[in-house]
Amino acid sequence: MISLDAIDLEFLMMALEHQTDFYDSFWWFDPDTGEIGFWLRGAAEESVEELEERGVITIDPISSRDGYREMEDFISTVSDDRSRDLLQQAIDRKRPFRRFKDTLIDLPELGDQWFTFHDRTVRTHAIEWLVDAGVVDRAEAEQALAQGPDAGRKSSDG
User: How far is residue 154's CA from residue 6's CA, in Å, rounded to a whole number?
Assistant: First the structure.
């Protein structure tokens, strides 16, 4: 197992959120080093076989169903009836993700709340992904989740 401190959690969060349109591409995680990378046919330094030999784990993106559920969960926290109704109407129509973002632009007072909520949700998903993959200790992960958003993040100070 690897320590949560050895993993760039923000980079893992980005990989989990990245919905690629490339057919021959994927994000990967090295459970020995905590390294995260993106593999793209024709641009990769290593073959898929070499990555498999290293024991990397493919990082599947968060599903759109989970993303939709996250928006629903956020909407349930909005106390202003009008704002809550507008956000609910946005996700009940075609292109709910785009309409949700557009509605947030019209409700700037909720923007920071959404991004805080979203970051917390994706961070929790990333830590749970690491536990489910058998990469980090469950007790360490639970402690990081209990400590809040800055726990388990690599410092950019070095």
Answer: 7
What values do phi and psi take at 116, rounded to 5? -65, -45
Residue 102 has which token pair?
A: 């557009």
* Burial class of residue 77 (count of CB atoms within 10 Å of its CB; 0-12, 13-18, 19+): exposed
Distance CA 145, CA 119 (A): 12
Answer for the pair 125, 62: CB distance below 8 angstroms, yes or no: yes
Q: How far is CA 45 from CA 24, 38, 54, in A?
A: 14, 10, 14
CA distance 5 to 137: 12
Lookup: tokens for 98: 């785009």
Over residues 53-63, the pLDDT tens digits come to 999 999 999 99
pTM for the full model?
0.84
Quickly list H helices, 39-107: 48-54, 64-75, 81-91, 96-106
Residue 25 structure tokens: 């591409």
